[in-house]
Amino acid sequence: MELNKKEIASQLKEAANLLDVLAEDEFRAKAYMNAARQIEGFDGDILILLKENRLTDIRGVGKTVAAEIAYLKTQEALPILEELYVKVPEGVRDLFRVSGLGSKKISALWQNGIASLEGLIEAAGDGRIAALKGFGAKSADKFAEAAKFATEAKRRMRLNIAETLSNAISSVLQERLPELKLEPAGEYRRCCETVGSLEFVVSGVSQDALNSASADIGEKLSLTDEGLTLELEGRLVNFSLVAPEQFATALLYKTGNNSYLEGLEEKAKELGFELSYEGLFKDGSRIKTNAEADLFAALGLEPILPELREEKHPEPINVIELKDIHGQIHNHSSWSDAVHSIREMVAACRNAGFTYLAMADHSRTSYYANGLSIDRVYEQAKEIAEIRQELADEGSDFELLHGIEVDIMTDGSLDYPDEVLKILDYTVVSVHQNFTLSKEDQTRRIIKAVEHPLAKILAHPTGRLLLRRPEYDVDLDQIIDTCAATGTIIEINANPYRLDLDWRWVKKAKAKGCQFSINPDAHHVDGFNDLKYGVMMARKAGLSKEDVVNTAATAKDFLARLKP
Ligand SMILES: [Zn+2]
Ligand SMILES: [Zn+2]
Question: Which of 138, 147, 174, 389 has the highest CB neighbour count under 10 A?
Answer without folding.
Answer: 147
